[in-house]
């Protein structure tokens, strides 16, 4: 299929490569001239055959709002816009309504896979009508892993981003558990090889996971994570998950605590937060803060 891709950063750039490797024609636009294939959104739209599919991978909030609005002026009835960024699910109804007035379809898609998605495939959680999702399905099939990794989460706008939001809330809690376990092992003068202990858990145990693999990789590179400062950012979805839990009276003790732990990391140099920072850097290439807090 032919597809336009707006935003060619760490995720978008690798997605373009994976799609091209699968035989799709991708026209990419980015504000960085070194990354883009065309010089403008107008040129991107003109290069695509109809019905046109344009996938947006830009930061959530105003950048996404502005991009969707511009595409609404450039696309035509029967075309589809996919928001694959980390938008808040409540924004999707706005975008779907804005585009729907012009007969343009809208699909929201939560994307997980980080910097490893190019090689391993991306987990995709999408929301939108059956008709609109079908127009994008060839791209979904090429981006996802060989087995599984794709769900049409719901037909209402926001279903995909809501599913991805909850996914990230769970991710917060899992990372916090590993990090706190690492801190305790480091604090007690009993276990002599903490990295090897974590490595041993990767096979045959009930807590094995990709996050455990990534933390083990980080510990092998820096046994005590001395190069990192115990500071971990939050990207927004953890907050939105807790807000949704409050709105729906759903108890979410562990995920809420893991979010608040990240806030704690901004007040003191937390050893557990070094592990959180290490895992975020491993799976998503997220920036880390090095050196002592000062």
Automatic annotation (TrEMBL):
Similarity annotation: Belongs to the 6-phosphogluconate dehydrogenase family.
Keywords: Gluconate utilization, Oxidoreductase
Domain 6-phosphogluconate dehydrogenase C-terminal: start-end pairs: 160-287
Biological source species: Nocardioides bruguierae
One Gene Ontology molecular-function label: phosphogluconate dehydrogenase (decarboxylating) activity
Claim: Oxidoreductase is one of the keywords in the record: yes
Protein name: Decarboxylating 6-phosphogluconate dehydrogenase
InterPro entries linked: 6-PGluconate_DH-like_C_sf, 6DGDH_YqeC, 6PGD_dom2, 6PGDH_C, 6PGDH_NADP-bd, NAD(P)-bd_dom_sf, Pgluconate_DH
Keyword Transmembrane: no
One GO-annotated biological process of the protein: pentose-phosphate shunt
Superkingdom of the organism of origin: Bacteria
Gene it is expressed from: gnd
